[in-house]
Amino acid sequence: STFGALRFPNDIQVENRRLVTALANSINALGVRTLTETTVESLTIKGHRITGVQTSRGAISCRTVVLAAGTWSSFIRSHPAITPVRGQMICLESKPQLTKHVIFSPRGYLVPRQDGRLLAGSTSENAGFARRVTAGGMASILQNALEISPAVKDLPVIDSWAGLRPRAADGLPVLGPCGEIDGLFYATGHYRNGILLAPLTAELISEAIVAGVASPLLAPFSPDRFSSQPVVSV
After folding, report:
1. Strands 174-177 and 184-188
2. Going edge to edge, which strands form the sheet with 83-93?
3. Is the pLDDT of residue 234 over 50?
4. What does the alpha-carbon distance between residue 114 and residue 31 come to, in Å, rounded to a whole number?
5. Is it true that the peptide bond before 166 is cis, omega within 30 degrees of 0?
6. What's the DSSP call for residue 117?
7. In sequence order, what are the beta bridge partners of 120?
8. What's the CA gap between 219 and 71, in Å, rounded?
9. Are 73 and 83 in contact (CB under 8 A)?
10. Helices within 37-129 (DSSP H only)
């Protein structure tokens, strides 16, 4: 058999855990107020305009809301529907490093980290909100990893986890202002590309809020592309 490959020497990766820590440190330094261990229960809408949010700690009044709750967006507003897609991952230990580059195949991928971890993934499962690692999921991931590199068979498994990806009906992000409710903006449904699209999403959504005009780049991802439903005002 003949095999081919493409190499992208300028392809880079982001350590997601360190990115979240950096983001938390950044917003603290900027004086942004955050509420932890707080559930947003619903939006408060009067006359087709956002007036606030109801949380587990009480009501918060505001004229602008960005719905960026990922997989849990539909718990706050059911339309458009955002559903969870489970993805399982396995972490191997590779010292010395088996590879310095991310390696993709049609069925899986290997992601080397600088500290010697080697991530193998992933699955795409309609399993609701069950964030569980399963025997079948691990078997599938390891089979695909071994297909990429037989040397994986000698590496110890040191960790595994499962996450939930937020997916809209058409698989595209849901971004931009809601045509039915003034002051409501969406930034969700990124599915498998949340971290990759986060900086651009933040730039475009903040620009739309501050300038009051949405970029044409947001048009294909508008929440208004889905069939409308009546808005209930309170």
Report:
1. antiparallel
2. 103-104, 109-112, 117-121, 83-93, 157-167
3. no
4. 32
5. no
6. E
7. 90, 110
8. 22
9. no
10. 73-76
User: Can you tell me the distance from the alpha carbon of 146 to that of 95, in angstroms, rounded to the nearest whole number?
Assistant: 17
| HSE-CB of 139 using CA atoms within 13 angstroms | 3
Q: Which residue has the tokens 């007036």?
A: 51
Contact 226, 169 (CB under 8 A): yes
CA 72 to chain centre: 11
Q: How far is CA 43 from CA 81, 83, 185, in A?
A: 16, 19, 12
Task: Please write the tens of the pLDDT for every residue from 134-165.
Answer: 999 999 999 999 999 999 999 999 999 999 99
Q: Mean pLDDT over residues 14-36, rounded?
A: 93
Interval 21-25 mean pLDDT: 95
Token duo for residue 3: 């095999």
For residue 161, the model assigns a pLDDT of: 97
